[in-house]
Design goal:
Elements: H1 3-18, E1 21-22, E2 25-29, E3 38-42, E4 45-53, E5 66-67, E6 69-72, E7 78-81, E8 108-109, E9 116-134, E10 146-151, H2 157-160, H3 166-172, E11 174-180, E12 192-194, E13 202-209, E14 225-235, E15 239-240, H4 242-263
Antiparallel strand pairs: 1-15, 2-14, 3-4, 4-5, 4-9, 6-7, 8-14, 9-12, 9-13, 9-14, 10-11, 10-13
Helix pairs in contact: 1-4
Length: 265
């Protein structure tokens, strides 16, 4: 075998052996956000947060989605104030404590209404962790159970969510990624829970206080209050490893060298 062919063969084997791709682990911190809108970009992937709550049926069965008001509390994270804050008089089924916006009503909660935050990403990610900045621990009256949903349907749920009930959301492609209890008592920085056991990949994640309508876990409800601070996930788009990029560079140089050898014959 000629030296040039032998070199090309060895290089080809090396490219197969080392030409794998890495999946990048990324986190998005929502400490510095203005009220109403929140956008964070890490490693070219942009995450945006939108507030939602089940206020669309005006005190009915409390399961129809409507836009709400996103609130930022610095290192405590993001909370939600739903549209019951605008109600002059409190009716049955409404979140009567929401109007004053005091703790714990300024959090993402399931007291009468079901508050959630829709996190959208510019690329699909596999969500792996959710960190809350508040509360620091559970109390005898307040809990910190959460529900995580991944969108696997067609279309854009940022517009389609409005007015949807739990049943309509499931039919549209929202999948339960899991219920997670007592996040405030988890170990790790700022109370972090490992999530998404089914390993869903999506650009759209709806994370809120525990919602038994998406299958029940048998936990108490109506007393969960949290603020979301950090999300972590895995980028599902393949990213070449540095060794792979180096080998491709060597391959290009080898190709040029062989062309020069033939040109001088």
């Amino acid at each position: 075998m000629r030296t040039s062919n032998r070199f090309a063969c060895i290089l080809g084997i090396a490219l197969v052996a080392f030409g794998t791709s890495a999946f990048a682990a990324i986190s998005w911190n929502f400490t510095s956000c203005p009220d109403a809108t929140c956008t964070q970009t890490t490693s070219t992937i942009t995450a945006k947060a939108y507030a939602w709550s089940t206020t669309a049926n005006n005190g009915g069965t409390n399961n129809a989605m409507e836009t709400a008001y996103l609130r930022s509390y610095g290192s405590s994270g993001l909370g939600v104030t739903n549209r019951d804050q605008q109600v002059g008089t409190c009716s049955s089924g409404e979140d009567c404590g929401e109007a004053d916006g005091t703790a714990p009503e300024h959090a993402v909660d399931n007291n009468d209404r079901q508050d959630s935050i829709l996190f959208t990403f510019s690329e699909a990610i596999k969500l792996t962790q959710v960190t809350i900045g508040w509360p620091a621990s559970n109390t005898t009256s307040n809990d910190s159970d959460i529900t995580v949903l991944a969108y696997k349907g067609l279309g854009t749920p940022t517009t389609e969510l409005n007015g949807q009930t739990t049943g309509a959301m499931s039919a549209a492609g929202w999948k339960l990624a899991g219920h997670y209890s007592d996040v405030a008592d988890e170990t790790g920085p700022n109370n972090t829970a490992d999530v998404n056991a089914p390993a869903y990949e999506s650009k759209y994640w709806l994370i809120g206080a525990y919602n038994s309508a998406f299958s029940t876990a048998g936990w108490s409800t109506g007393n969960d209050y949290v603020k979301f601070l950090v999300l972590a996930g895995t980028q599902t788009t393949q990213v070449p490893e540095p060794s792979t990029l180096l080998l491709f560079g060597i391959a290009a140089m080898a190709g040029l060298w062989r062309r020069r050898q033939y040109a001088h014959r």
